[in-house]
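Pipeline run #58 for the internal structure catalog. This entry was flagged by the ingest filter as a single-chain record with no existing model, so it goes straight to prediction. Upstream metadata was stripped on purpose; only the residue string is passed forward. Reviewer on rotation: M.T. Logging verbosity set to normal.
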Amino acid sequence: MNKEKKLYLSLIIVFILFSLAVFITNYYGETDTRSFTSTAKFFAGSYQAKIRSSHSYLWGFVNFPLVKLFQNYIGFKILNLIILTLIIISIYYISNKKDKKLLFLLLCTPILWYMAPYVNSIQIASLFFLWCYYFIQKYDDDGKISYLIYSGIFFGLAVAFWHAIFFYGIFLIMFFFYDKKVFHLLYYIIAILIGLIPLFILDYYIFGFIFHSLIKNYIGTMSNLLSLGIYSVDATASKTIPVLFVVIVMLPFYVWKLYTKKVFKKHKKVILFLTAALLITLKNPQARYLLLIVPIILIILLKILDKNQIKRLLLISMLVTTLTIISYVVILPAEEIRTKDLIQIDKDYPNELFLIGPYADDYERIAILSWDNNISEFISIQDYELYLNNESSLIERELRFTPIINSRREYWISGGIGKPISDNTDYESINYLIDYGHSCDEIIIDNFILDKHYQILSVYKKAEEITNE
């Protein structure tokens, strides 16, 4: 067997071993995973709750056939591995390196395997964004409009799947277009709109308005940044030392070499973008965001590192990747125990409506775990409290333009979030409540008394129902 065949065999063996770990683990990620599992389950016709997603419905729509087929979320991992393989091949192709040994280095990139089991749309968005960068760099070097159009289309596709990438893209546009003609930027915007067509079609089909997801997401994001909404970045983003440590460790070891005088001068635009992107990530430190920029960092590093440095990078990457995989293989998520509890609740309380608490979105956490059809619906405790108080609005904001002069008219813009007018839930028929089982939080709601406790979940029964019995 020649060296090249041995290399390919080694690559296949390592990929299979890493992939087995991804399939073995019950870990599916943390932040935002429910936005995608719930929508996929919704499109598959097996979601026993009202749908609410903070992110694009498009990735859930793409995955729903696999969710329907397997009756679980393993299909997300299958597509993740395909996408991450394409990212590896794309980095190798774009870096224009002939040494196939570099494929081994790319295969062992920690952030790829950190995200391999993670249910999220960042993976597919990062693949599209990588090619967006490639073509905008080609456009910057050659000035060909065709490269500009390709870049815009890929950027549009990235935004269609992960809306937050738009904020990173602003800096990409800023650094690559500051010395270009204005009408070239107009071409780019048109190309972006072309890339967004899949999202527009889906939004029109399910909401009747093509800009629904984009407007909802960006208004929500800005509200959170300005602390005008229900949540805020400071409330949701952990900035503890362990979290920051994970973010730093997931960066390629030699990332600091990008800022040497020679390298920075040659790759100024993209390094300025990478710096801005890294600062955005540190503002809301989550390692998953690094999947967007690490492939671009590697493309530059492969051009400037010598063989010894690449070997060191490979060894460090293998170590970090191994520890990353071990960390999620040994995890036994509490969701697995909750799923077993739900199976028993389904048998003990068939065809019932259930309130879920103590938090507003706990109903979603339960709904994505249930695969039985005996439970009628899971309902957010927040909606029930609105019903009890005869209210429909969660939050309202008003921008009022008060005239300084003695004017006869005053104008204002108002908006808000609340239950839909078409909500037809029979709240009066709700007799049971499920406590999600947060470690330190207890259900506190009038007229509900503990009926049965399971391993983690607890079922409460309406007091008046107990009295009637």
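catalog note: Confidence is low (pLDDT under 50) at residues 232-236.
catalog note: The longest strand covers residues 393-401.
status: ready for reviewer M.T.
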